[in-house]
Amino acid sequence: MKPNGKLILECLNLLAACYELIKDPVNLARPDKNGKRSMWVFNGDPSWRDPLMLHKWGYTPQSLAQLMNECGLREIKQEKAQFKLREPRDMRITGIK
What we know:
The chain is α+β, with helices and mostly antiparallel strands.
């Protein structure tokens, strides 16, 4: 990455998924579309048959920002997610190299 380049990461927000699941654990822990904002964050879409398409790790806004900082990025901030299901399930963290 070039100096002063901007890195934009959009991914699932593990913390938001936890809060969502706590709201209605009976219905939101199901493998159908009800789990899209909660359980799919932890494991991925159950309709995928490829084991490489499952999630290997999850981040909260704070843990992702810390990792980005450890990688040498600065001016790290959370912005409004623009893709996929957006807020609150997804998050957008940016940083400058």
